[in-house]
Structures are given as structure tokens and as C-alpha cells.
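Practice problem: Sesquiterpene cyclase
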Amino acid sequence: MTTAHEGGAAASHPRIPAASLKDLIEAELYMPFPFLSNPHEHEAAAGVENWLHAYGLTDDPSAAAMVAHTRPAELASYNGPTMDPELLQIMANQIAYQFVFDDRAEEVGRRPSRLMPMLCESIGILRDGGRPSTPLGAALADLQRQVRERCTPDQAARWAWAGREYVHGLLYEAVAQSDPVRLGTGLCASIRSLTAGVEPFYPLCEAALHGELAPRELDHPAVRRLRRLSADAAVWIPDLFSAVKEQRIGGMINLALAYRREYRCSVQEGVMLAVRRINGTITEFERLSQETEPELSPLGIAYVAGMAGWIRGCYYWSRSVPRYADTSAVPAGPLI
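Answer key — C-alpha cells:
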């Protein structure tokens, strides 16, 4: 796969009129990172299918269709192009699990009496090693086992902590959905940073380096900022491509739709406002990573490169995954 964006900003190429919203996003979004994929993607896809089936997570035909349209192994492949097969499989399993979990949480989110037990079970497993009582809980417990077997104890602890933050974010999302009038871009971005579920994967990226970062590098202010920038860009990019779908089903926690509500504009205009914010985020990530590189070890530099991989991977996955195919059918509309 090659695109005009690979290796540079869209602005460096002649402007071609966009026919669809997808074309517009691809023309305007700054993507300096080239497309890469993992050669073990097809094995990971088969592994995901078997793992989900073993825990009954695709027994519901609608869940099976959702996974087929989401292609979790493809997202893992694009985000972790150099990962070994074992670690790629863990990442693909976790991506699939989070999509199933997130869709289930969204389905029951307007009924707290059903949502709370689901979230509390996950927190109990991640925090205390509690025994699961549902198929989702059993799958999460098995994911935790896989992570603990492959990662160092500190990496596994960071994975569990970031996973708990993701689960808590789904509760915030449910509360926000109940009062959408007050849901501006600032609050939406804060909740999205939790529900993105990106940061639980950074310990897996670290494990792929066959080493462990020293605390001084993990806690370096610039590295903490880079984690925030990469996670935000990685989740906001799919928001661009999913805005049409989310608008249709009444979704609220989406950066482009938050801009649409705040400025009372079209979906297309909301997407373009979000593109500008993402471009600034990616530009800051590039600049800060270059400035910080002399202060980092080779392991630290590779860790930051793994963060960049999530920005790149989420872009190339979003523009091709069937889950967001509606974006190609919507006209670009008027530019701001």
C-alpha cells in the first residue's frame, strides 16, 4: 500500500479536490510515518478468531460481524510491524477483546445497574486477580495471564494499571452520554483519552524491545508528554473516520462530533476542525521526540518509535477497515 502521505505532510503535494469525506481526511491529515505491516498478520487473525470463540465472545452473530468488520489483527499488524508472533498475538487478542468490551459497555451504558457489575468485575481482575464470573471476565483473566507470562512484573503492572484507567473511562463515558448538552470538546477529549484504550499497549511495545526502560526514562517529563500525544493522536484519527457511523447511532464521545456540537456545524466541518487539532498534535510529537532523543538510551528511542507506530497504524487501519466504510459514501462537503 502506498499513498501520497507516506514520508511527508499532505501539504507538500498538489491539492486534489476531494470527492468524499474519506478523500478529504486523507488529503488534509498530516501523516509523516510510512505504512508498515507485520508478516505474521494472517496467523494472528486466525489466532484471534480461535481465542474469541474459546471464550464465547463471538457466539452472538452481531459480535462476530463486528469483529469481522473491525479486523483486530490488522490493527495489531500495522501498530506492531516488527513484533514477534507471540507478542503480536497478545496485542491482537487484546484489541479484539477491547472492541467487544467497548461495544458491550456502550450497549448497556444507559442502564447503570447492568454496566456497573461488568466494570467492577474487570477492575477486580486487573487490580486483585479476582475470579471471573462472565465470559468477558474469563477472557480478560486469560489476557492478564498472557501478559504476565511474556512481560516483566513491572511491565505487567503498568499494563494492568492502564487497563483499569480504560475501564474507569467507560463509566465516565456513560455519565457523559446521559447529559450530552454539557459535553464540549474539552470534556470529550478528556474522556476519549481514557476510553481510547491505547496506553495499555505501551508495556507490550516495551516488551517487544526485549528490555525494560529505566524509571528515569519512563518518568521523564518529555516521555510522559509523548505518551499523551501519541495516545491522543492514535484515537482521534479513528474518530475522523468513524464520525459518520457515530453520528448515525447517536454516539457522543468522538472528537469530530464534539466540534460539530460546539460550533453547530456540519459533520464535515467538525471533521476538519478535528484534523487541525490532530495535525498540531502529530507535529508536536515529531518535534518533541527529536528534541528528546539525545537524552534517551537506544531502548528509550525505540520505545518512542513504538508510540509513533500507534499513530501510523491507527491511520492506515482506519482508512481501510470496513467498520468505517461509510466515510467513503459521504461527500466532502463545504470546506471551512
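Discussion: The chain has one domain: 10-329. Students who identified this feature from the C-alpha cells alone can consider the problem solved.
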